[in-house]
TrEMBL record:
<dbReference type="Pfam" id="PF00293">
    <property type="entry name" value="NUDIX"/>
</dbReference>
<dbReference type="GO" id="GO:0006260">
    <property type="term" value="P:DNA replication"/>
</dbReference>
<dbReference type="GO" id="GO:0008413">
    <property type="term" value="F:8-oxo-7,8-dihydroguanosine triphosphate pyrophosphatase activity"/>
</dbReference>
<keyword id="KW-0234">DNA repair</keyword>
<dbReference type="InterPro" id="IPR047127">
    <property type="entry name" value="MutT-like"/>
</dbReference>
<feature type="domain" description="Nudix hydrolase">
    <location>
        <begin position="7"/>
        <end position="132"/>
    </location>
</feature>
<keyword id="KW-0460">Magnesium</keyword>
<dbReference type="GO" id="GO:0044716">
    <property type="term" value="F:8-oxo-GDP phosphatase activity"/>
</dbReference>
<comment type="similarity">
    <text>Belongs to the Nudix hydrolase family.</text>
</comment>
<dbReference type="InterPro" id="IPR020476">
    <property type="entry name" value="Nudix_hydrolase"/>
</dbReference>
<protein>
    <recommendedName>
        <fullName>8-oxo-dGTP diphosphatase</fullName>
        <ecNumber>3.6.1.55</ecNumber>
    </recommendedName>
</protein>
<dbReference type="GO" id="GO:0046872">
    <property type="term" value="F:metal ion binding"/>
</dbReference>
<keyword id="KW-0479">Metal-binding</keyword>
<keyword id="KW-0227">DNA damage</keyword>
<dbReference type="InterPro" id="IPR015797">
    <property type="entry name" value="NUDIX_hydrolase-like_dom_sf"/>
</dbReference>
<keyword id="KW-0378">Hydrolase</keyword>
<keyword id="KW-0235">DNA replication</keyword>
Amino acid sequence: MTDTTVPPIDVAVGILMKPNGDVLLGQRPEGKPYAGYWEFPGGKVDPGETVLDALKREFVEELGIEIVSAEEWCGVEHVYEHAHVRLHFFISREWRGEPQSLEGQAFAWQGTVGVEPLLPATIPLLEWLDRLRYA
């Protein structure tokens, strides 16, 4: 059982979006909670770091790409068995480089999202995202 009296962990999450609306999803590597589940890439915000700085750092570390610009999209709190997280979602349509698997994780560009299982906090966002992508 997660202790909800502990403040949530801030996590920066990035949605890379191609001009055609395709988005990048990554698969959580072995050894992490929810290994094998698909999610939007990102990671914990370090003390003294802004959410956007954390996002940029995580994308360099995990995927070897540089976020040129990103707009804040939405925030979601989710209580998992292992952690209470506050997810800060950004959408980026502008980056340098091609994603690489620097942590041994699988990733896939998705139009209609067909990979599964999806991380529980990701599922409700897909409907909102489709409204944005295909408006």
